[in-house]
Amino acid sequence: MKISFCLKAGFIGTALASAQVCRAESQTNQADIDDLKQQLQILQQKVNALENQHQEPQTQSQSPSKPSAALTVGQDGVTFRSADSNFIAGLHAWVQADSRTFFQDEHSAGIDGFVLRRARLIFTGTLFHDFDFNLTPEFAGSSAPQILDAYLNYHYSPAFQLEVGKFKPPIGLEALEPDIWTSFNERSLATDLAPYRDIGAELHGDLLGGVFSYAAGVFNGLPDLNTTTVNANYDNDVAFAGRIFVSPFKQTTIAPLKGFGAGVSGSYEYDRTNASAAGLTPGYTTDGQQKFFTYSASTAPGGPHWRVSPQGYYYWGPIGFLGEYIVSGQRVEKITAPVAFDDLHNTAWEVSGGWVLTGENASYAGVMPRHPFSIENGGWGAWQIVGRYARLNVDNGTFPAFASATGSASRAEAWAVGLNWYLNADLRANLSFSRTTFNGGSANPATQKAEEVLFTRVQLAF
Fold first, then answer.
1. pLDDT value for 74
2. DSSP letters of 328-363?
3. What pTM was estimated for this model as a whole?
4. Which of 85, 93, 94, 347 could make a disulfide contact with 120, Cβ separation 3.0–4.6 Å?
5. Do residues 410 and 440 lie in contact, with contact meaning Cβ atoms separated by under 8 Å?
């Protein structure tokens, strides 16, 4: 019995001891768990703090920054733009250095040599978002510097714009093309009958994305391009000029027709002659800038002066053509005895074309080389061959009452061929040859023989 009790007592003691050990271990594990939880909370707080530090600069970088003004210099010139783009100012430069070499020097009145044909520093810009301006002085030539363009254009929308100042009237297609984009050094005989620049106001715009364009203006007076400026010897009423031009396929997907455009322009004014002195002394010039026709000093305008010019162009890929016809009708008077008057109609037309040999697209706005000239990168720019034929007829009624039949030609015909090299967007070099023949003007050194001229040009325009 004693032994049995002792065993039982030992077993019970052992169990009690084990329970105490288990209770102690359980208490130790719970403490460890609580400690781990506390450490995890601390680590989580640190991780959250680090994430907040990482997100704050990212949020700041994603917030929109305040716009700032910008000054850029590139192939389009120097441009300053305000932070809100409401004010933009640009500075550009055009320089054309030419040479002219006349053949048959013993019979030609032309003088060989180099010519600074154009040197312009052009200031353009936008004010208050809707008002564009242009100020273009000309520094080339033998005369003092002059202001060619000076105008303000309000562009309420592409379809409605109002231009005021001195600029080109909307008449000749070739005359309206900027000087840096023309195919040849000099414009054709047809442009002799188009007006140059004048002071006035013009409403103009483009509709349907440029499918239809219009212009209508009022000007002081519109002498022909190569005539002398209207002077105090006669008065001009205001001149009206307008133009409509349609590019019917411009917004279509018909690639061969997208570059077709045609239109018509015209002008009308009424000239009044003062009583005493000669006033009309205009002259028409050749490709070589020699005067082949001029009215007599006693001839003056005395009535309506109008023009009509159908015109058009076609461009498809590297091929391009341009053509126009101009008729200029004017009532003239001989103001010395024997007095005479007549309505004269001078006409002119031209067709020109070109092919870009390197495959770039031809356009009314010149050629942009796909691979600018660079010996290092192997680019050779764009190469274009061009050709032109033009003719100007003076009204037969002009001779002999209003112009000398021996001193002036009654007709001039000219053809020209050339090669244009567009090195890049700003540099261009030209080489061309022109030949002009005449009817009449046997006493004029410029028209006694055919004029043959070789032209070169190096052009910088940015």
1. 83
2. EEEEEEE-SSSPEEEEEEEEEEEEEEEEETT-PPP-
3. 0.81
4. 94
5. yes
